[in-house]
């Protein structure tokens, strides 16, 4: 585990998982500072740096040494409006964020992907997620952790009717297919950040649930 205070870079702090992770990070005594660029201002905190604007424009302006980076960026086809717009967020922006984090000295990247991510999938959503993972592997991170949660559970600012309909059913699914709360996922990501290692580790949803509960 890290024994010295860390500087953390977090993307997606206003999202369902990101807001839980940000709260966890700001309450960790080993975290010196969280650099969290966002489109909307976050609540002020003495250990939070919050550049406000479009992430793509903010990335070149970010500065300071980073130890660990978390990427919780993600959209839906409905929110994005088109396949091109979806790919821009869930692939291009994630890859650009990771590259910038590496330039700032981050050794460990933890990224939220998705159950079923596969660059050869016939399902567009899963294929984009898989291609994103593939691009991150090509960046040759000293330590890369890919989290593949199933359906994320928890209250959202924006109502998603289909998720509201399927959420109760997701509790009945077996193993890695069962839904996972965003709070549990955030706790699991922090646990994984404390594990030193080398290379790439893919963590499926059932393991994420176990890590997040402990």
Describe this structure in words.
The protein is an alpha/beta fold and 214 residues long. The protein has a single domain (6-213), classed as NAD(P)-binding Rossmann-like Domain (Rossmann fold, 3-Layer(aba) Sandwich). It has 8 helices and 9 strands. The strands form 2 sheets. It has a 7-stranded parallel beta sheet, sandwiched between helices. Strands 7-8 form a two-stranded parallel sheet. α7 crosses α8. It is globular.
Overview features:
18% strand, alpha/beta, NAD(P)-bd_dom_sf, Rossmann fold, NAD(P)-bd_dom, NAD-dependent epimerase/dehydratase family protein, 214 residues
Shape: globular
Biggest β-sheet description:
7 strands, parallel
| Alpha carbon gyration radius | 16 Å
CATH architecture: 3-Layer(aba) Sandwich
Annotation field: number of helices: 8
Instruction: Write the H/E string, N to C.
Output: EHEEHEHHEHEEHEHEH
Could you give me the name of the CATH homologous superfamily? NAD(P)-binding Rossmann-like Domain
Domain NAD(P)-binding: 12-153
Protein name: NAD-dependent epimerase/dehydratase family protein
InterPro entries: NAD(P)-bd_dom (IPR016040), NAD(P)-bd_dom_sf (IPR036291)
Organism: Stutzerimonas zhaodongensis
């Amino acid at each position: 585990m890290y024994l010295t205070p860390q500087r953390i870079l977090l993307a997606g702090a206003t999202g369902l998982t990101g807001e839980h992770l940000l709260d966890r990070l700001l309450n960790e005594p080993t975290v010196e500072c969280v650099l969290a660029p966002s489109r909307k201002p976050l609540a002020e905190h003495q250990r939070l740096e919050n550049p406000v604007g479009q992430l793509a424009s903010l990335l070149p302006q970010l500065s300071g040494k980073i130890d660990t980076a978390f990427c919780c960026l993600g959209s839906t086809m409905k929110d994005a409006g088109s396949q091109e717009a979806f790919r821009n967020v869930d692939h291009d922006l994630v890859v650009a964020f990771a590259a910038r984090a590496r330039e700032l000295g981050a050794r460990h990247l933890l990224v939220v992907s998705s159950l079923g991510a596969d660059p050869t999938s016939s399902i567009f959503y899963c294929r984009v997620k898989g291609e994103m993972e593939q691009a991150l592997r090509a960046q040759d991170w000293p330590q890369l952790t890919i989290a593949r949660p199933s359906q994320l559970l928890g209250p959202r600012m924006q109502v998603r009717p289909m998720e509201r309909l399927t959420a109760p059913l997701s509790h009945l699914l077996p193993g890695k297919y069962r839904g996972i709360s965003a709070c549990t996922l955030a706790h699991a990501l922090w646990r994984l950040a404390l594990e030193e290692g080398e290379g790439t580790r893919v963590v499926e949803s059932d393991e994420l649930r176990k890590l997040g509960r402990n």
